[in-house]
Amino acid sequence: MALPLIVVPDDFPSVFAGTPAHDRCRALGETAVHTARGADDEQELIRRIDRARIAINIRAHARFTEPVFAACRNLQMVSVWGTGVDNIDLEAAGRRGVTVSNTPGVNAFAVAEHTVALMLAVARRIPRLDREMREGKWPRELLTQLLGKTLGVFGIGRIGARVIALGKALGMEPLAWSGRGDTTRIPALGARAAAKDAILGQADVVTLHLRLEPATRGFLARKDLAMMKRTAILVNTGRGALVERDALLEALREGRIAGAGLDVFHDEPLRPDDPILSLPNVVLSPHNAGQTPEVIRDGLLRAVENVENFLAGRPTDVVVAPLR
Fold first, then answer.
1. Domains of the chain: which residue ranges?
2. So what's the pLDDT on residue 2?
């Protein structure tokens, strides 16, 4: 039996080429790694993977759409590095006989740490204080203390669970909401279960750890942001589209919430004229909450391990299995 062709179409910026995961992948079959920009273009993505049996998806800017699956008839599996699969038409994948797997939980601790870092950076105004001191100023304003504050966590997967633990270590009181309705698990994590509206009305910090899907797109709309305290902080390390963009900009501009810490955005990378860049009450990072050497190493190896298991007939971390 011929060895499979494995293609990494979107290793830009490169994290896969030349790694132990790359070497392990070569042992499975011919492996092509594309390290140049371009996988965000549908026709270019098709060109790169049209002969592939396996695609290892590194970056979410490569969108595996119905036309991509229709054109790439040899494709049997997409192995995603990371948890999010909102860049993949899962229904089309299943219908076209393509298995999709991901690597859940690999980056959970790193993303949770980054969530708390953004929370503290906004509450303590660290970026602005640092900038003003470098300008020769000596700012002495009141800051926000998190001890005793209420932490509202939406999503209790591995990341949300870790954020609850870190919040408790800071002396915060966590309220949690499960997108799957799993309220019985919340007390075991050290939090109190609460309804969405109750969390928005009570929390001093609201943090989002939900998978982006049709039911969660625009999860925080204008009416939801209006329920939050004017002193509240919003942190989003999930997906930008979990929050309505215009409503968030309006709430931040008008001081309806105190600030936000954002690692994810509707458009990535941000355009130089994006209005979020002009707001002084926002701390930004470039969707790199999970980017640590440990996460990259372990996640890439896990993505290749999923390929190994698929080829051995025992697929793991399956998000979608073929419908035929």
1. 6-106+292-320, 108-284
2. 56
- Structural domain 108-284, CATH architecture: 3-Layer(aba) Sandwich (3.40)
Among 30, 268, 305, 308, the active-site one is 268
Mark whether 113 is an active-site residue.
no
pLDDT for the residue 83: 86
Q: Is 268 a catalytic residue?
A: yes
Residue 238, pLDDT above cutoff 80? yes
C-alpha dihedral sign at 169, 174, 176, 182: positive
Which numeric CATH code is attached to 6-106+292-320? 3.40.50.720
